[in-house]
Design goal:
The complex is a heterotrimer of chains A (about 325), B (about 170) and C (about 475).
Chain A lengths: L1 H22 L12 E5 L6 H16 L6 E5 L6 H8 L7 E7 L3 H6 L10 E16 L7 H6 L3 E4 L9 H9 L3 E4 L5 H9 L5 E5 H9 L3 E7 L20 H6 L1 E8 L5 H15 L2 H9 L7 E2 H16 L2 H8 L1
Helix pairs in contact in A: 2-10
Chain B lengths: L1 H22 L4 H26 L1 H14 L6 H14 L3 H21 L1 H16 L4 H22 L11
Chain C lengths: L1 H5 L3 H17 L5 H8 L8 H18 L1 H7 L11 H9 L3 H25 L1 H10 L2 H17 L5 H15 L2 E2 L6 E2 L13 H20 L12 H14 L1 H15 L6 H15 L12 H24 L5 H12 L8 H4 L1 H30 L6 H20 L2 H19 L4 H24 L4 H4 L1 H27 L1
Helix pairs in contact in C: 2-4, 2-18, 3-4, 3-16, 4-16, 4-18, 5-6, 5-7, 6-7, 7-12, 7-13, 7-15, 7-18, 9-10, 9-14, 9-21, 9-23, 10-21, 11-19, 11-20, 11-21, 12-18, 13-14, 13-15, 14-15, 19-20
The chains are: A alpha/beta (about 325), B mainly alpha (about 170), C mainly alpha (about 475).
């Protein structure tokens, strides 16, 4: 009898709760009034997480007292899980997150993920990170021409999801006959594979490769996504200098902040201002310098325009990418 | 009990058969290793099903196990026999009750969130199942709720699931 | 530097870091990595050496903390502690939780010392060793780990193998690691990354076990000897020192495995357990509450973190997930990793090592002092303790990835674990299959992409590992045959 009572009570509570949930209106006044959730599609401690936490701390300075930006790690499927969470949340401006672009567009080109990057409310950019095509010092390759002349070049990578879509795009544009050794659990594993001779080259962000480039475990062959040479690797040509300017547009890893589609204009404007102030905050910039995590800020409108352009370019790559995605 | 064991063994067999069947629909690279492993799993599960259905197979296997364990004598088979005797004595009603309470906790967490479901579950479980006193039930629920809030929400700042109704 | 550590606030940070680390390690779902992530922002403004002291102490203590729930409630605080369950929990069931905790604390401390010492002394050798491991070797390591299914675990061999293979099949759910084809997901996005191991582990081991306690209305420990807990704790300490050769072997194994990124910390514990079972006398008691079954994995588990420092510091490639966070902390404090760290920031390296050594000592002292109190948990009536364990496991599952799906996985695997336990199937075998299945598949296929199948047998380390696999599988039968001959 007691147990029946408990079951009935829980059932009534659920029913009342459902009604409550559906009937509560979304308020647009005095935004923000509660904590903001910031989704990260990777585990704590990684690059995306570190940037997110630093920025979240800075944003709290500009929020009304007592409000926080709560970083929620939701790793899975190269950030697609987190993207789905943000995309399908209530469009009230309280759910945002960091998006690795244009990597997250590629699954959308061929499958049906639970998000559409063309509808995301873009709020700003933290970093546009250049990518580097680098050859292991154990290999015989020292220039792009060496790669182009080879019968086959073994490229180590984790897979064709996320930022690593840069690898096949680069190889295709350079006309290099590449054999892809996928399945590594992370960029570190792929780089180790190349260092011990199981692969010849890798394509990763400059940040990931930096230490190994400086200690000469890898030879940088091409810098992509950066307008000029990097002083730390002065002998490495940019893609434009090498005669492949399209790689400078296509191949760069963007760390973009985006929110749910359909956020009201007023809230969107406030979020964009908040993020822009935070990215340019002196303390955040000091952290960036100290922790060697560069930033290349863009505001919400510039981000929207830039991404729209890149996505159109990626649409043009559909035929090239299809064989890797299917 | 024998029926339960048969159901469980056949359930595992069903999963393995389903996975092996699906494997044939994948690309060659993606199905190579699953097929190798799946065939081994299938052989093992089919053998187990034969053993639960036919006592003769079970006895044959038992004799082989005893030979294999000759240097540890009877301790292995003693433990196993004891485990099986224990299983025979299990109170089925209690088993179903435990599963139901656990289901309530999981469902309650999903619907109402951790902060409501946890103290509610603890209080009701301690009062209705364990027949503990009001004081103990309320205080334990409060202490655990407080510890959860303090560690996860306050110190770690992990936003625990708030339920689908709130 | 030593003065920093024993002076103020060094000593406070060392003790507080150790306590925080032990708590994080002991609560299922939290870990040393989580602890460091939480503490990093609090280290802003500290000098690098002091910051590293605090973080290293926290992380080092968490690996011992993870052994506590293994012994008390059959649940690893962190996956690398899983092998400790094999004998730790049976010891608790026999009323010897105090002894298990005492030996775990001692073995962890000694293993941590030895791991760091070995790493320091053998940096050049370890670096070359790291480079000698390729896909073939990783595959053989995974296969060696899977062979444990054949020699440990509950129930008969056929049920153990069936459980293991079932676990391997479950490990294939999600993206195929090489081609990214989705397998066995039935259109459910949650399954794209496969069945999450840690929630499944909580379900199989913890939930399944406490369901059994509740149904049978018995506490973990039934034996009356549970009362002599404090004496037991010291008995555990003495037992560890009595088995120093085992501690040394296990620590060396753990260090080498930890130095190879990609093998996974959990393998270290299980492989160490296996070598203990194969090499120790009277090993038929393993799995029934043999203290050596706790010493071996705990020593290896702590030693592996010493090994994991090597690729982290030498190449900037994290040897473990915690090392990835450490890397971030080092960079934040202006310390560049790479071969130069041993020249440019040698003082920080020493501070890290001293902190790790220090925290193990402090953890041992704290652990041994409270072990007998913790053992009381095994005697609390199940109706009080089990609902709390249910709650802790479910929250722990959620906290890992902020995903309610993980809570459902814990629940479903809890039911599976209960039924498996009832009918004599091996849950450990299933876990091993789930953990090592993808590693084995991935490396097998990567090896075939880069060379022929014969390379598995022509690469020296791969061949040695293959022979070790044969030895593991055949030796028990050889021994049994010999014993029959002697009778």
């Amino acid at each position: 009898m007691k147990k029946v009572f408990v079951v009935v009570l829980m059932g009534v509570l659920v029913f009342i709760g459902f009604c409550f949930g559906f009937l509560t209106p979304v308020s647009a006044q005095d935004f923000p009034k509660k904590n903001i959730r910031w989704f990260v599609g990777y585990s704590p401690g990684g690059g995306f997480d570190t940037y997110s936490r630093a920025l979240a701390r800075t944003m709290e300075k500009y929020l009304p007292k007592g409000l926080h930006v709560i970083v929620v790690n939701r790793p899975g499927s190269a950030s697609q899980q987190a993207a789905s969470m943000i995309y399908n949340a209530k469009p009230d401006g309280y759910t945002i997150g960091i998006w690795p672009m244009p990597g997250l567009y590629v699954p959308q080109m061929f499958f049906e993920p639970k998000y559409d990057v063309k509808k995301v409310t873009w709020l700003g950019t933290v970093l546009v990170e250049p990518m580097v095509l680098a050859a292991s010092s154990k290999s015989d390759f020292r220039t792009v021409k060496d790669l182009q002349g080879a019968k086959s070049v073994r490229l180590a990578l984790t897979g064709f999801t996320g930022p690593e879509i840069a690898a096949p795009i680069t190889m295709e544009k350079l006309g290099v006959k590449a054999q892809y050794i996928t399945g590594h659990t992370g960029s570190g594993q792929a780089m180790l594979a190349a260092m011990r001779g199981d692969a010849d080259a890798v394509v990763f962000s400059y940040g990931s490769l930096r230490k190994l480039l400086l200690d000469k475990s890898f030879v940088p062959l091409l810098l992509m996504g950066e307008g000029k040479r990097n002083p730390e690797i002065p002998d490495c040509p940019t893609a434009t200098e090498a005669g492949y300017p399209e790689l400078d547009d296509l191949v760069a890893a963007w760390r973009v902040i985006g929110g749910t589609p359909g956020i009201p204009e007023d809230q969107k404007k406030k979020l964009r201002e908040l993020i822009w102030k935070s990215i340019n905050d002196p303390e955040f910039l000091e952290w960036s310098k100290k922790s060697k995590r560069p930033v290349s800020p863009l505001d919400g409108i510039a981000t929207e325009r830039a991404l729209a352009k890149i996505l159109v370019q990626y649409d043009g790559l559909r035929d090239i990418l299809e064989k890797y995605m299917k | 009990m024998k029926t339960e064991e048969k159901v469980f063994t056949f359930f595992l067999l069903f999963i393995v058969v389903l996975m092996v069947a699906l494997t044939f629909g994948y690309r060659p690279g993606a199905r190579l290793v699953p097929i190798l492993v799946g065939v081994c799993a299938l052989i093992l599960m089919v053998s187990l099903c034969l053993m639960v259905l036919f006592q003769r197979f079970a006895s044959l296997y038992q004799r082989w196990e005893e030979k294999r364990h000759v240097y540890s004598k009877d301790t292995e088979s003693e433990d196993l026999n004891e485990r099986m005797r224990e299983a025979e004595r299990t109170d089925r009603k209690k088993e179903r009750s435990v599963v139901t309470w656990l289901l309530f906790l999981v469902a309650g967490t999903y619907v109402f969130g951790f902060f409501i479901a946890i103290p509610l579950f603890l209080f009701l479980f301690l009062k209705l199942w364990a027949h503990e006193t009001w004081v103990l039930s309320l205080s334990m629920s409060g202490v655990v709720w407080g510890a959860v809030f303090f560690i996860f929400a306050y110190i770690l700042g992990i936003p625990l699931h708030q339920g689908i109704v709130f | 530097m030593l003065a920093n550590m024993v002076g103020w606030p060094g000593i406070l940070l060392l003790i507080s870091g150790t306590i925080i680390g032990m708590i994080f390690g002991a609560i299922p779902g939290l870990s040393g990595t989580t602890a460091i992530v939480v503490l990093i922002p609090m280290t802003f403004g500290m000098d690098p050496g002091t910051a590293m002291l605090w973080l290293a102490a926290t992380y080092g203590a968490a690996t011992y903390g993870g052994a506590i729930p293994c012994i008390l409630i059959n649940t690893p605080g962190e996956p690398p502690n899983a092998a400790t369950i094999l004998d730790g929990y049976p010891m608790a069931q026999k009323g010897k939780a105090g002894m298990a905790l005492g030996s775990a604390a001692t073995a962890s401390t000694l293993g941590g010392f030895i791991g760091l010492l070995v790493t320091l002394l053998m940096i050049p050798v370890l670096t070359r060793f790291l480079m000698a491991f390729s896909y073939q070797e990783f595959f053989m390591m995974a296969l060696l780990g899977l062979c444990i299914i054949a020699i440990v675990g509950e129930g008969t061999l056929i049920k153990g193998l069936a459980s293991g293979f079932f676990g391997i099949m479950l490990s294939f759910v999600g993206y195929d690691p090489i081609t990214s084809v989705l397998r066995y997901t039935f259109g459910i996005q949650y399954l794209w990354d496969g069945i999450p191991v840690v929630p499944a582990l909580f379900g199989l081991l913890a939930i399944g076990e406490v369901m059994d306690l509740l149904v049978k209305e018995r506490a973990v420990a039934e034996a009356q000897s549970a009362r002599a807990s404090r004496r037991q704790v010291w008995a555990g300490v003495r037992a560890t020192f009595k088995n120093m050769p085992l501690v040394l072997r296990s620590s060396a194994l753990g260090t080498f495995i930890g130095a190879i990124p990609g093998v996974g910390g959990t393998v270290a514990g299980f492989l160490s357990y296996m070598q203990a079972k194969q090499t120790c006398k009277n090993s038929e008691n393993f799995g029934k509450g043999d203290v050596r079954g706790v010493i071996a994995p705990e020593a290896a588990n702590d030693a592996k973190e010493g090994g994991a420092l090597l690729p982290t510091l030498a190449f900037g490639i994290p040897g473990s997930s915690a090392m990835a966070v450490f890397l971030g902390a080092l960079t934040l404090h202006g310390i560049d990793v790479g071969q130069d760290i041993f020249v440019a920031n040698l003082d920080v390296v020493y501070m890290l090592i001293l902190a790790a050594l220090g925290c193990h000592m402090v953890a041992a002292v704290i652990g041994l002092s409270v072990a007998d109190k913790m053992a009381i948990l095994t005697r609390i009536r199940p109706t009080l303790i089990t609902p709390v364990i249910f709650v802790v496991c479910l929250i722990g599952s959620f906290a890992l990835r902020n995903n309610m799906g993980d809570v459902f996985v814990t629940f479903l695997f809890g039911l599976l674990g209960y039924e498996m336990r009832k009918f004599g199937f091996s849950r450990i075998a299933l876990i091993l299959g789930l953990l090592l299945g993808t590693m084995a598949e991935r490396n097998f296929r990567q090896a075939l992409m880069t060379s022929t199948i014969w390379r598995f047998f022509t690469r020296p380390i791969s061949l040695v590992l293959f022979l070790a696999i044969l030895a593991v599988l055949i030796l028990p039968y050889v021994r049994a045959y010999r014993k029959r001959g002697d009778i």
